[in-house]
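Student: I would love a firmer grasp of how sequence relates to backbone shape in proteins. I am handing you a single protein, as its sequence and its fold in token form. I am told such tokens are a discrete way to write the fold. I hope you can help me see how the letters and the tokens relate. Take your time, and here it is.
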Amino acid sequence: MWEDIFKAIDDQYDKMLETRRHLHQYPEVSFQEEQTAQFIVDTYERLGIPYERNVGGNGVLATLKGGKPGKTVALRADFDALPIQELNDVSYKSKNDGVMHACGHDGHTASLLGLAEALLPFQDQLPGTIVFLHQHAEEYSPGGAKPIMDSGKLDHVDAVFGTHIWVNAPTGVIQTSKGPFMAGADRFELTIQGKGGHGAIPHQTKDAIVIASQVVTQLQQVVSRRVDPLKTAVLSIGTFEAGHAFNIISDSARLTGTVRTFDPEVQELIIEEMEKIIKGTCVANGADYDLNYERGYPPVVNHSKEASLVLDRSHEADASLTTEEVEPSMAGEDFAYYMQKKPGAFYFTGGQIPDHYYPHHHPKFDFDEKALNHAAKTLIQAFRSYQES
């Protein structure tokens, strides 16, 4: 049966390609994915697979109950896009101005929908139950995973698997780890309020740009001098906005940035040290500040058994696939919320285009569409492996 299923997935490739390119042309940002959710619902209506919509927001859960006893496994694909203007010159270029599938979520959705259609003729032979978990709003905290888990609609699930098409890995390579895999991702916004004035009389001002610059420089010492070097952490400033004219000293400056950690104690240390530095610098310069620190997604920590199933058995889905156990990535993912309550594993499906490599979230991002098949095959192989474990 399984070889027939893998062949059926191959037969679905053209349909998956069509679906991916359709979704790519009509992207919707996080929490606004109404048309995308409707497209998913329409597909399950056509297939006759029962579903629930508006789960935790715009989420969709479809359920295929096999004819044989077994475990219930959720297979997840996210479907939101990013506020990015696409710069690719392709036939399926985004038609929604300023919005783009620049991370591969259109491919995740196409793979899961193609898998559902490929499996339908084999329903009576399948062990257990598959929950096709279509998640909205992965890109922006608080995300879609937590409200879906909080809804209780996955309480009956025994395990959760998910994959991310990954252009940092060659096509045909499956990557994961047996523990920490992706970092916790926080964000912060800092406003420093000084006193503006004429550029020719700086002694009458409290220069917000100078003060903010001191903060930026000192924040770079938090990880290098306060965090145990055997621990992993990132503190990055992403934006620095201040001033409007060449001869006016700015009265305020706004910084935004991100903190990435795996260890909650390291996270707390960084927050504490940031507050000390910001407060001390502002007090020394007679300025005020407002720090808004948002604790984002927790780290993605794979369960060892489930990750081993992906590493050891993915090649059974397609002999061309290879697996690699890799070091954790500092990127974040709200898949973490599923694995806080359920066994499971998250993994990367390689999809790099050798002559067109642009990273995730780049306006020229694209991926090798052969990864659509690989994602679908490895997801059902993970389901199979878990049933047999």
Remarks:
- Residues 2-182+299-388 form a domain with the Aminopeptidase fold (CATH 3.40.630.10).
- The CA atoms of residues 194 and 207 lie 6 Å apart.
- The longest helix spans residues 264-285.
